[in-house]
Amino acid sequence: MAETQLRFGILCCAEIARKVSRAILLSPTTTISAIGSRSLEKATAFASENHFPESTHVYGTYDAVLDDPDVDIVYVPLPTSLHLRWAVRAAEKKKHVLLEKPVALNVAELDAILAACESNGVQFMDATMWMHHPRTEKMKQLLSDDQRFGQLKYVHSAYSIAEEDDFMKNDIRVNPNLDSLGALGDAGWYCIRAILWAHDYDLPKTVTTFPDPVYNESGVILSCGATLNWKNDGKIATFYCSFFSNLCMDIIALGTRGNLRVHDFIIPFNEKVGHFYTVANSMWAELALGCGPEPSEFTISTDLPQEALMVREFARLVHRIRSGEAKPEKKWAVISRKTQVVIDAVVASIKNGFVPIEVVY
């Protein structure tokens, strides 16, 4: 027997909500039941432009979405400064919470969100889409292969995009009252998540930010980077995030036996195909005139884009809760909190003059 479709309510008409609403409608186990904005006109236009079902309830307030009995799950793509208020309210209304990243301005805010979800028995997940692409699982298998990859020693992750003048002046991600983490929250979140993912979510001992991050006139970070150090086994990682550099979405992982590289880990260049490259036991050729073997390319196909796979997985977890088979899965809360803890350490390192900051979970 087919599972009943779970019904999403969406809070606000952010650009990213267009992508996720498409995913909700592509997923076979979900639909959109409600959309809310600060104005009814904007919500109505958004629903029409993005081909929402005719049955979708359209509201001029966010509270109306949370009060709608036909909403099972709330997707929250609001500015980060509003996450605490509305994610907690959603949980208190017994709505499961899919929260856009960065999930909070700091770990204290996230803890309040997670506490509300736990006390109300609802599922929490952050909307880091690449985690759900089948390529991600395949890459993890190769990183765990002692013969082909060996022990992980170094990871570098970079996410940059050269934003235009209008973005730099008007986007919420450069407004200190809406998304004060700037590029660190928007782009650095992905880089830090990639590093933690490669390390099986083992937290580093310290984080040290590179000197001279770039700020806008309002004090919002537009470009920064840091080193993460595990100390006890020689593992280190670095990341760079920026609103100035050409589009880059790289992970480079170096092991004692092999390397892994992916060029589009956040959003695949083609939503139906994900590529990555590995090489093992590399050696110089005679006279160092070359080297080998050449990297192998892996191609991982998917019938659904990664954001639809994310939605489908979230729906699966909610179905298990509703049927009584399981309690809310805590893995996603733990992963989100670890990512946020590292972001907090980056902020602390900057504020304290780029000194090493101990990471405390």
Description:
The protein is of the alpha/beta class and 361 residues long. The chain has two domains: 6-130 and 306-330, Rossmann fold (3-Layer(aba) Sandwich); 132-305 and 340-358, Dihydrodipicolinate Reductase, domain 2 (2-Layer Sandwich), CATH 3.30.360.10. The protein is 34% helix and 25% strand. It has helices at 15-26, 40-49, 62-67, 83-92, 107-119, 134-143, 165-170, 182-198, 306-322, 331-351; strands spanning 6-11, 30-36, 57-59, 73-76, 96-99, 124-126, 152-160, 206-209, 214-215, 221-229, 236-242, 248-255, 258-262, 273-280, 283-284, 291-292, 296-301, 357-358. The strands form three sheets. Strands 7, 8, 9, 10, 11, 12, 13, 14, 17 and 18 form a ten-stranded mixed β-sheet that branches. The protein has a six-stranded parallel β-sheet with strand order 3-2-1-4-5-6, with helices on both faces. A two-stranded antiparallel ribbon has the order 15-16. The protein starts with 5 loop residues before the first strand and ends with a strand. The mean pLDDT is 96. It comes from Deinandra increscens subsp. villosa. Pfam families: GFO_IDH_MocA, GFO_IDH_MocA_C3. Residues 138-260 form the GFO/IDH/MocA-like oxidoreductase domain.
